[in-house]
Design goal:
It contains two helices and 48 strands. By secondary structure, it is mainly beta. The protein has two domains: about 160 residues, Sandwich (Jelly Rolls); about 350 residues, 3 Solenoid (Pectate Lyase C-like), CATH 2.160.20.10. Strand 8 and strand 9 form a beta hairpin. Its main location: secreted.
């Protein structure tokens, strides 16, 4: 399935489960890799181009660091693939594009509002270091604008093409090419194209923003209202902030960064600076806007201790509205010292940023009172987002506390030994008040969540996970499994250290070991109103402790290992001990998840609200 809506589809009705639904082949999960409210995303990590329609050329998915879409014919004068919906009107399509060969008279292009094989808007890379914004009508090209841009074969560039009413605009690596008014077509599909050129394409994303957004699940429901933080802690945020839709400010409290920015630049929209420079220059209450595109980085980007905002004036690091900045650390080797983005300051708010392919954690959190909203951490070589102390000698009073991970996604993180790369982690050494809310962790080589306590430092403080989903952890999107991985959905402890974590209103589905497990935590974990379905061993595994269980549900598609519960469990739970309870019958049909505009995680079964 390549509609690539931000949703997962799985059949969990009793009849479907008994019919053998427990196998991977019977489950279809769509990729969901964009940090923004994407209507479509394809990273090609599933190895196919199903859902794309081809016309001309030789197209295939090949390995180029990650898996990419490649057109390999040098003689085709019109090689195209299309996807999406002919009714899409206002949207931005973005793609990473690597021209490999570019013959005389040739081009490599990104397409929007395609109504046929030769009618569309196009942002084209041409020989002679030229980029053009074009309207193509039955093959006749009208140039809407152009810019000079040095381009080298074998180099990745991020192209963005935005169509909003009659306004058409394009950019390369966050730098504007042109904006024009044109009424050639009001709606249409997306595509990529080459002519007498070979090229690779990756990370193709559509972000809605016009009158007719990309399709969303047929029915959505309002998720439970955000709960307050545990007693005695300070929540860094209440209800999630809506996505920014207005133009960014241009006053002195905003700095602008692009992949082509210069360290000494002013940091204006016209003269953007670099990320590392902006981090040292932004003032409390100010915002750093990251333009869309891929930032190829080889060193950890660090927000240092002492680089702080305040409770009333946070420092913000945000995606530019309608664009997706990707911090790519693929140049790093796998090493604990090679993190991607290290947030060791306090009172920061990160929004809409993708961090990928770091040599260790994608985002490391050593500071306190920070918010990580709409972030995506993927393909990193340790846990995607991890909260832990900065250094081994950091005193307990300075362990990271009161951080909120909100409406975030983490997937396909994998280390070489398979034992440490989780989707999300708050482990080893964390202070009080850390919360994960509306978060989704899937296809990580180890666990969805890891709350492991370090034996030589004593207990960590309780962590709250709520209104979240963990699925298919232990198996990467490409099918890779590492036998050394723990492969749980929610791993809630370790080292026989008692910590009273809270996990509520969350879903564990089809993880490679247990859905929810105490993992040798003998404390009083609060486990309430959760749903666990078809995990490989137990849906709930609690062999010791004094945990409290209320309102939980466990479903299986036939035979399987009984749930193991030690603690305070009453009749409000429906655990699995050889048969499904009555609640499982209502979990029939497709389960879909999406992020609402305000960041809440919306979940439905067959278009009907999920009540946890």
């Amino acid at each position: 399935m390549k509609s690539r809506k931000r949703k997962v589809v799985l059949a969990v009705g009793v009849a479907a489960l008994v019919a053998g639904f427990g196998s991977l082949a019977a489950v279809s999960f769509a990729d969901a890799n964009s940090a923004s409210s994407a209507g479509f995303t394809d990273t090609f990590e599933d190895g196919d181009i199903a859902g794309w329609s081809k016309s001309g050329g030789t197209w295939s998915v090949v390995a180029d660091g990650s898996k990419v879409l490649r057109q390999s014919s040098t003689t085709s004068n019109n090689a195209r693939v299309f996807a999406g919906d002919s009714g899409w009107t206002g949207y931005a399509v973005q793609a990473r594009v690597k021209p490999l060969t570019l013959g005389s008279g040739g081009f490599v292009g990104l397409l929007a509002r395609a109504t046929g094989s030769t009618t569309f808007y196009r942002l084209a890379l041409l020989p002679g270091n030229l980029v053009q914004l074009q309207a193509v009508n039955s093959g006749t090209v009208t140039v809407l604008g152009s810019a000079s841009r040095t381009m080298s074969p074998g180099t990745w560039y991020t192209l963005s093409l935005t169509v909003n009413g009659a306004t058409i605009s394009g950019s390369v690596d966050g730098s504007a090419v042109a904006t024009a008014t044109n009424t050639l077509r009001a709606a249409g599909r997306i595509g990529v194209q080459t002519s007498y050129a070979t090229a690779s394409f990756d990370d193709i994303t559509v972000t809605t923003g016009g009158a007719t957004p990309a399709p969303t699940p047929a029915t959505t429901t309002t998720a439970p209202a955000p709960s307050t933080s545990p007693t005695g802690t300070t929540s860094p945020s209440g209800t999630p902030s809506p996505s920014p839709t207005s133009s960014p400010p241009t006053a002195g409290n905003a700095l602008y960064v692009s992949p082509a920015g210069a360290a000494g630049a002013a940091g204006t929209q016209a003269n953007p600076t670099t990320l590392t420079s902006a981090i040292t220059r932004v003032t409390a209450g100010g915002t750093i806007y990251l333009r869309g595109g891929t930032y190829n980085l080889s060193q950890t980007v660090t927000i240092a201790p002492g680089n702080n905002g305040t409770a009333s004036a946070r420092k913000k690091l945000s995606a530019y509205p309608g664009e997706t900045p990707v911090l790519n650390f693929s140049a790093q080797s796998e090493d604990p010292a090679n993190r991607g983005l290290a947030v060791n300051g306090n009172f920061w708010h990160l929004y809409g940023i993708v961090v990928e392919r770091a040599g260790d954690n994608g985002i490391f959190v050593g500071g306190s009172n920070n918010i990580f909203e709409r972030t995506v951490t993927r393909f990193n070589r340790d846990s995607g987002l991890q909260i832990s102390r900065i250094a081994s000698d950091t005193p307990r009073a300075q362990w990271p506390a009161n951080n909120l991970v909100l409406s975030a996604e983490s997937h396909d993180n994998a280390d070489s030994d398979g034992e440490d790369a989780d989707g999300f982690a708050a482990k080893l050494t964390v202070g009080p008040g850390n919360v994960f809310r509306y978060a989704v962790s899937h296809h990580n080589i180890d666990d969805g969540w890891d709350l492991f306590a370090k034996p030589d430092t004593g207990p960590i403080d309780p962590v709250t996970i709520e209104d979240s989903i963990a699925y298919d952890n232990g198996t990467l999107s490409n099918g890779t499994v590492n036998a050394a991985g723990d492969r749980n959905g929610y791993k809630l402890g370790g080292s026989d250290i008692a910590v009273n974590h809270v996990v509520r209103r969350s879903i564990a589905y089809h993880n490679g070991k247990h859905g929810f497990t105490y993992n040798s935590n003998p404390g009083t974990i609060s486990v309430s109103n959760n749903l666990s379905i078809d995990n490989a061993e137990r849906n709930y595994s609690f062999d010791a402790g004094t945990s409290v269980f209320r309102g939980n549900t466990s479903c299986r598609g036939g035979s399987g290992t009984n749930d193991r519960i030690i603690g305070d469990a009453d009749s409000s739970n429906q655990f699995w001990s050889g048969s499904n309870g009555s609640r499982c019958a209502t979990r029939t049909g497709a389960l879909a998840w999406s992020f609402a505009a305000d960041g809440r995680l919306l979940v439905t079964f067959a278009g009907k609200p999920v009540t946890l």
